[in-house]
Specification:
Strand content: 15-25%
Number of helices: 1
Mean pLDDT: 78
Radius of gyration: 15 Å
Distance between the termini: 21 Å
Helix content: under 10%
Structural class: mainly beta
Low-confidence stretches: 88-96
Strand order of the largest sheet: 1-2-3
Order of helices and strands: HEEEEE
Amino acid sequence: VTAAHCTAGRTADSLAVAVGYTNLSSTAQDRFIIPVKEIRDHPNYKGEETNFEDDISVLVLGEELDLTLYPHIKPVCLPPVKEPGQMMAGMLIRRPWCLVGTH
């Protein structure tokens, strides 16, 4: 999960996700850069036009990652929903950050 403003105008093949980097100075063998297969922006995201409302995007990974092999890597936790496709009113979701640049 990331902010849609970080994926706006980009293609999946131009992105990758860093997983397992819980300690950025670590040289451990249990961290990975995984290519992105698909970008799923919130359907109502319109950027500045709507003051960045619905600024969320899901990145579908291009490779599977067995989380049982890497206990320090955890999936993102999302709040419960009242009905499918509807978030609970009043929930605060922390805005994700992104790093946009070249390798």
